[in-house]
Amino acid sequence: VSDTNSGLLITGIEKLVNRFLIELLTEKGSLDYALDRGTFFMTQLRLGLVRTTSDLFTQFSVAEIDLRGQLQGEELDTDPDDERYASASVLSSSLLGDTMTLSLNIVSRAGTSRNVIFPITFSNI
Q1: pLDDT per residue as tens digits for the range 74-121
Q2: pTM of the model
Q3: 27: closest CA among 36, 13, 39?
Q4: Where are the beta strands (DSSP E) in the chain?
């Protein structure tokens, strides 16, 4: 990676998925230089406000609205459509103790999509 080709190692829908997950897992207010970046998704988990899969779907939906504005707000018209955000949805989820597993579908403006499965372990505060 250099100052002339940064971002070229991950391209297309994979780059979009990476951007999406970073923003989803970044707690809003945790970046001193960008307090409005991220979501309250992980904060809600850590506060113990997600106890059922219904709670999980609700919190994800709220976070997705915030993410949509952030991701689309930083995109340029010159960015490839497969790297530009269109939507995301939860395909399935499970919540067991302090471990949550999400299966997400992330869709680009080009219509390409990826299913992503990832576990998140969190501690209630």
Answers
A1: 999 999 999 999 999 999 988 887 788 889 999 999 999 999 998 888
A2: 0.85
A3: 39
A4: 85-96, 99-108, 113-121
